[in-house]
Structure formats: structure tokens, C-alpha cells
Design a protein that fits this description.
heterodimer, A: 295 residues, mainly alpha, MetI-like fold, 71% helix, B: 287 residues, 14 helices, transmembrane (chain B), membrane (chain B)
Chain lengths: 295, 287
């Protein structure tokens, strides 16, 4: 445990410094978290105070046929994104890690998709994947397809497109996380393995992966949590109701739809939020257990 | 930086021509995948209305490049006004985070007081809370404050972020304590120590926070979509999403709008990327 710094200041000084941040935390994080749970048992609307109605919102929620679609979409989205975004950025980080010419350039440019707004990214990809867009154009030219592939109008193809877009946008972000973790991998282990005749692939599994295992676990949880929150990609790519027939809705899209407008059903949206919270905390608890076991 | 001076092992560090070729070819392929879609969008935005963008044989370079699509976006939606709205929100959030996270981070790292661990725990606890879960209650709070449908309402919840407080705390913890102890002996107050000793040492993390906060505010979509209704108050991302369906189906115009949202943040990032990557290294959280 770190030793306490000596007291060289007035008793009130730390609190003066912390007060704004603590105030913000209380008003915009802690209180809303508790309040959401309370609101979920009311029929409160945007502009009118609600009454306590018990678990009615939760009963409504289970009868909502869109909820099943949202859960399936979100879980498929998560199941594909987690392995892809856990491994691909690690390989990318290994490629740009060495001090060779132009590595700074590559790092910077690989980060570009991260900086772009999800709305912009979705607009770009919508144009790429349009029936008459670049991807279909090239595929037709190469003789791969005869009629356009319906990337944006077929339920599963739209979901796949949103996944591709998410992986594309996330690569650079997780690459940077891995870059700082790779700095801590002991070089001697690599050299020893190389002397023993281990090739690049063997060294990757025997030295690199164990060396960044903590970061890998963190990264996969970050991806799982952000996959639970998927919204903008599907909203822009598929349309504001979640694609054709509303089949590509996500949990957050249902929350937004319930809360939108001047007469938004905030109580119902809160019940959905509580459900989202429960689903999100799952992977976090798994990580906590996994961390405890490996420490 | 240390790597440069370390003695290199001939076996491990040998750079074979074949290895180099494969490495750079792979990097170029990834480069094509990451910036290709952006370049294609840029190219579309520069293609004249007379040029067939749907052509079956796509070409990247516009035959007769024009900025006309950018003017057309401006006539369809007040995009400059939206950009100003976004910039205003982003500037409020950057200023708030730099000041608020610095103050709180310093107190948590460098000052002793009762309840420090509890406060730290509170900040940590909110990291596991996805923003979307609390968004409904935040929306209610902002509307009750009379800030619904206002840019201040958009900016408010992100003025101080818990993650930034923790990043600043980590950065201050990494500053050698001896520096400050010497200043204490010289009779420096907390404020003087913060201003003249601690702050200059954490510039890297400060710039990372500034860059990430700006990008986060500029790019945010769900929260402004929920808060804003009046067409003249929209931020750029929300305004753009209206461009897509309601006004036009012309890919050139949409592409021009997307570029107006994309290019300023890219330019900002390229200008500051040196500080960004240095700061990320400096504040690396050992996981």
C-alpha cells in the first residue's frame, strides 16, 4: 500500500479541488444510475411526472417482440466483434511496433477511423455498400456477382455490415492500447525463444500472447461492453427504425425510440436501461473472476 | 525511447529483406483498407453532378473535380452553423475536463485527506456503468434544469469525466515525489506546487485528454439526438443524419457533408498526433 503523503496543506484544500468533479459524478452518474432503477417502476413521461406502477414496464418489455430481435442482434454482434477486435489489433500493433521508417505515419493513419464520428463512418460505408456502390461495382466487374448484394436491406447482411464497420473503426483504438502493453513484454524472453529456434508464430503464442494477456482480457471486455451499446452504426446504416421491418434494432435503439420526442416514455425506457445494465455487468463480473484466478 | 540504446541481439533483430517486404506490403494493404473508404468518400464529394458516380467501372480520381457539392450541402442544411454548435459543445467540454480533472486528479494523487479511498472508489465505480444506462435519467435532469433543447444541455453531462480524473491521477502519481518535497521545504503552497511543478510534468496526459474529449464531443450522436429538437440548434452529427434521408439522396452531397464533419477532426489530430502518442505512452496504464 502506498504511504500517505505528508499533510502540508489546509484540511479544506483537497475538497475544494475535488468538489467540482465529485459534484459532476454525483449529478450525472451516481444519481442517474439510482434514479433509472426508480424510474423503471413509474409511468413517467418527458414532460409529465409519473406514478408508481410496479413491474408493469418489465412485463411490457417481455411482451415486446422487438426485444427478442434486439437481444439476438446484440449478442451476435458481440460474439463476432470480440474475437476479431481482440486479435487483429494485436497483430497490427506488432506490425507497427518496431522502429522502422514510416511507422509513425502508419500508426497515425491507422488511427483515422477511430477519430471519425460513427455517423460519418456509417455514411461512408452506406455509400460503399449501396446496391450501386463501390463494393458491388467491383464485385460485378470481377464477375463475382451478377445482381447487387443487398448489404443494407437484408437482415443478416446489414448486421454483418455493421460488424465490419465496427471492426474497421475499432482497429486503431485497440492497436494503441496494445502498443503500450507490448512495451512491457520482456524482450529477453523473445530473444531466448528465438535462440531456441522458435519461429515468429511460435513466439507469438508462447511469448507475446502471455505477455499481453492482461490487456487482452481488458480489451475483450471493453469490446463486449461497447458491443452491448451498439446504436449509431445500425441507426445510420439501416435507417432509424432498425433496417427493413425493424429487424436490426439494438437494445440502445429501443431505449432511444421509447424516450424520443416530447412525450417520451421515460419509465419504459428506464426499464430497458436496467435490462441493458444487467446484461453489461455480466462480462465485467466474468473478467473480475478471471483476473482473480490468474493473479 | 530506451530501446534505441539497448544492445541488439543479432538473431532477434536481424532484418531480412524478405521480412521487410512482407511487413511493408501488409502495412500497405491495411492502409488501403483503413483510408480507402475515406478516400472514396472524398472523391465522391468532388465529383461533378454531370459525372456518373454509380458507374460500373469506378474511378477514384474525379474527371472534373468541383467544390459545388460543398456549396449544395450548405444550401440544404446550415452546415456551418451546425459545425459551430459542435465546436462550442466540444470547447466547453475540453475546458471543463482540463480544469476539473486536473484539480481532482491532483488531490487524489498528491494530497492526503480523510475519505480519499472512498472518493477514488466512487470514481472507479462509474467506469463499469455504460453511459447509455444513465442517459434517460440524465435527460430528465437536463430537461428539469430547463436545458432541454439547448447546447449547454448537450455539453453539461460531459464537462467532467470520471475516466479523465483517473487518468490525471495516474499521471500525477508518476511524477517523482522528491520534486514536490523540495518545494514543500521551500514553503510552496499547494497551488504553487500544482501550477509550477506538477502541471508541467503531465502535459502529455493533458493533451491526450484534450484531444479525446474534443473528438468525443464532436463525434457524439445519441445524446445530442435525444436532447435537441430545434433545427437551428443541432450539432453536426445530428444534422448530418437528417441530410441522409429527408433532404436528398444524392451521394455527392452526403459525401460533402461527411467530409465537412471528418476533415476538421482529422486535421486537428494530425497536428497534435505527436503529443497524443507521446501522452498515451506516458500515461500507459499497466494492465
Amino acid at each position: 500500500m502506498p504511504s500517505r503523503p505528508p499533510r502540508t496543506h489546509r484540511r479544506s484544500t483537497p475538497w475544494l479541488l475535488i468538489a467540482p468533479a465529485l459534484g459532476w459524478l454525483a449529478v450525472f452518474s451516481l444519481w442517474p444510475a439510482l434514479n433509472t432503477a426508480v424510474l423503471s417502476f413509474t409511468n413517467v413521461h418527458t414532460l409529465s411526472g409519473g406514478q408508481f406502477i410496479g413491474p408493469h414496464n418489465y412485463q411490457l418489455m417481455w411482451q415486446d417482440p422487438q426485444l427478442r430481435d434486439a437481444i439476438v442482434n446484440t449478442l451476435v454482434f458481440m460474439a463476432v466483434c470480440v474475437p476479431l477486435l481482440t486479435f487483429l489489433p494485436l497483430l497490427l500493433a506488432l506490425l507497427v511496433q518496431r522502429t522502422l521508417p514510416f511507422m509513425g505515419f502508419f500508426r497515425t493513419v491507422f488511427y483515422f477511423p477511430v477519430i471519425a464520428s460513427a455517423v460519418v463512418v456509417a455514411l461512408i460505408w452506406q455509400w460503399l455498400l449501396d446496391d450501386r456502390g463501390l463494393v458491388n461495382g467491383l464485385a460485378r466487374q470481377a464477375g463475382l456477382v451478377h445482381s447487387a448484394v443487398p448489404f443494407l436491406t437484408d437482415r443478416w447482411l446489414l448486421l454483418a455490415s455493421a460488424i465490419a464497420l465496427t471492426v474497421w473503426k475499432g482497429l486503431g483504438y485497440y492497436m494503441v492500447l496494445y502498443l503500450s502493453a507490448l512495451g512491457n513484454v520482456r524482450r529477453e524472453l523473445h530473444e531466448a525463444a528465438a535462440v531456441d529456434g522458435a519461429g515468429a508464430v511460435r513466439r507469438f503464442w508462447a511469448v507475446t500472447v502471455p505477455g499481453v494477456r492482461g490487456t487482452m482480457a481488458l480489451v475483450s471486455v471493453l469490446i463486449a461492453v461497447s458491443a452491448m451499446r451498439v446504436f449509431t452504426e445500425l441507426y445510420v446504416l439501416g435507417g432509424r427504425t432498425g433496417g427493413v421491418g425493424g429487424q436490426d434494432v439494438s437494445l440502445v435503439m429501443l431505449i432511444q425510440q421509447a424516450a424520443a420526442g416530447s412525450d417520451g416514455r421515460l419509465g419504459y425506457a428506464s426499464a430497458l436501461s436496467v435490462f441493458l445494465f444487467v446484461l453489461t455487468v455480466g462480462p465485467l463480473l466474468l473478467l473480475a473472476r478471471w483476473n482473480r484466478r490468474t493473479d | 525511447m530506451r530501446h534505441h540504446h539497448r544492445r541488439r541481439s543479432p538473431v532477434f533483430d536481424a532484418v531480412t529483406p524478405l521480412g521487410l517486404t512482407v511487413r511493408y506490403l501488409t502495412l500497405l494493404a491495411v492502409l488501403a483498407i483503413t483510408v480507402g473508404p475515406m478516400l472514396w468518400e472524398l472523391s465522391t464529394s468532388l465529383k461533378a453532378i454531370t459525372e456518373d458516380v454509380y458507374t460500373a467501372s469506378p474511378h477514384l480520381l474525379p474527371r472534373h473535380p468541383t467544390l459545388g457539392n460543398y456549396g449544395r450541402v450548405g444550401r440544404l442544411i446550415p452546415i456551418g452553423h451546425f459545425a459551430l454548435n459542435s465546436a462550442l459543445v466540444a470547447v466547453i467540454d475540453v475546458a471543463g475536463n482540463l480544469a476539473g480533472a486536473t484539480a481532482a486528479g491532483y488531490a487524489l494523487a498528491r494530497l492526503s485527506f480523510r475519505g480519499r479511498r472512498l472518493v477514488l472508489g466512487l470514481f472507479l465505480s462509474t467506469l463499469v456503468l455504460p453511459g447509455e444506462v444513465t442517459i434517460i435519467s440524465q435527460y430528465q435532469t437536463v430537461t428539469r434544469l430547463g436545458l432541454g433543447d439547448s447546447l449547454l444541455g448537450v455539453a453539461l453531462p460531459s464537462v467532467i469525466g470520471a475516466l479523465n480524473v483517473l487518468l490525471m491521477r495516474n499521471a500525477f502519481l508518476a511524477v517523482p515525489a522528491e520534486l514536490e518535497e523540495a518545494a514543500v521545504i521551500d514553503g510552496a503552497t499547494v497551488w504553487q506546487r500544482l501550477r509550477f511543478i506538477a502541471l508541467p510534468a503531465v502535459k502529455g496526459t493533458l493533451s491526450v485528454i484534450a484531444i479525446l474529449t474534443f473528438i468525443g464531443a464532436w463525434d457524439d450522436f445519441l445524446w445530442p439526438l435525444l436532447v435537441l429538437q430545434s433545427p437551428d440548434k443541432l450539432t453536426l452529427t445530428v444534422g448530418l443524419s437528417y441530410l441522409q434521408g429527408a433532404f436528398t439522396a444524392d451521394p455527392r452531397t452526403i459525401a460533402a457533408g461527411a467530409m465537412i464533419a471528418l476533415l476538421p477532426v482529422l486535421a486537428l489530430f494530425v497536428a497534435l498526433q505527436r503529443y497524443f502518442f507521446r501522452g498515451v505512452g506516458e500515461g500507459a496504464v499497466k494492465g
